[in-house]
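Support request, priority: normal
Reporter: lab tech (M.K.)
Component: structure prediction queue

Hi team, I submitted a job for LysR family transcriptional regulator from Endosaccharibacter trunci yesterday, and the status page still shows it as pending. I've pasted the exact input below so you can check whether something in the sequence is tripping the parser. The sequence length should be 309 residues. Please let me know if I need to resubmit or if it's stuck on your end.
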Amino acid sequence: MAINFLQNGTIMDRLDAMATLLSVVETGSFSAASRKLRVPVTTVSRRVAELEAHLRTQLLQRTTRKVTLTDAGAPYVLVCRKVLEQIGEAERNAAGEYQSPRGELTVTAPLVFGRMHLVPIIAEFMAQFVDVRLNCRFHDRNLDLQDEGIDIAIRVGPLPDSRWRARRIGAIRRVVCASPDYLARRGEPRALADLEAHDCVGFHGFDPKGNWLFPSPDGASAIPIHSRITFDTIDSAIDAGIAGIGLIRVLSYHVRPAIRSGLLREVLAEFAPPEMPVQIIHRHDELVPLKVRAFIDFVMPRLQTALAL
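Reply from support: The job had stalled in the queue. We restarted it manually and it finished. Here are the results:
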């Protein structure tokens, strides 16, 4: 019987059941939890059912579309999460993560930022800290540190969540630039109204409805642009700008190497929106593993240099 499984089983059985329940809650379905845990759906369903039988209460409300917590399940899941976090902390302590930098470190950052700035630094870090293994997840969507098991994240913009410790690296801004060849042929725009007479390179990520947004006394002004070509990747848009096709609008760190080398030149700087902070964050644990401290201390001064104009 299911109730005997948990009553007479090991502590590991109980912990497996708790971890499975958390996966179902975090992913939103039994099938998604199955994929995350890499076990059959029947195993996921059985573990949750055995846990509910052991507790003599229903933890999840199941429908054809989603899984939600019951009134009894919500506080139980909070306790399960805390228990599993404390066990993980104890294991990391026992494994020596608090005595020397070692173990796996999961880091996330925006896609282009990670490729341009973090990868070269990571190569140096790994050469110095040989007992640390890195799992890098570069995405343009913000991954949840808790749910995704992220140790460290690089974030651009204000932080809506105060659960994490944050340290400021620098700031970035939106910039308009073009190649010196294009500006020599077409002239340099001096005012936003001048954009109407210029060819622009569109990028789907920054150009809602074919407009570029700039600050104004009323909040923001949508300036129509003439895009002869539009891309869905930032690298392609930058290459087009360097090739002299037209003006491009990207984030400053995207084009800093090209501006420094003279391949691109910034224009309309006085109309740029306010800067956005770049911060490095990590989970707010009382005892921070040395691998986390070592990584932050190593990358911060190097990223600050990379972001400096």
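Residues 91 and 97 are 9 Å apart (CA to CA). The first helix runs from residue 2 to 8. Let us know if anything else looks off. Ticket resolved.
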